[in-house]
Amino acid sequence: xxxxxxxxxxxxxxxxxxxxxxxxxxxxxxxxxxxxxxxxxxxxxxxxxxxxxxxxxxxxxxxxxxxxxxxxxxxxxxxxxxxxxxxxxxxxxxxxxxxxxxxxxxxxxxxxxxxxxxxxxxxxxxxxxxxxxxxxxxxxxxxxxxxxx
Length: 149
Description:
This protein is an alpha+beta fold.
């Protein structure tokens, strides 16, 4: 497994857009942004670090670290979930978590995972992570209508 820091280049922007389009689990967007919107996002991304994950030179996912020490990890296929430990090893040997700051962040890395992404949740549990929090967001009117209908 290889790791390529997002600089970003046009090739990286295209790679990340292809990965975004193929995502099964979405947290921060409901509608796919246009390529121009995506490019703007990547050029001014809010992450402390962002890395494209590769296997034999082919992009298979990406991992990013937020300033609160949370990690987001996305693979293009479930078959790569058995390699989460390799990504975690890379993160832990390449970056240090920011120091703890009360009500801002804990002083260690942790994962943010979509509630629908059971495979990643299970893999993280096997690796010794435990769930400590759940996040609830308001439902859209469309979701409410579907559930009531």
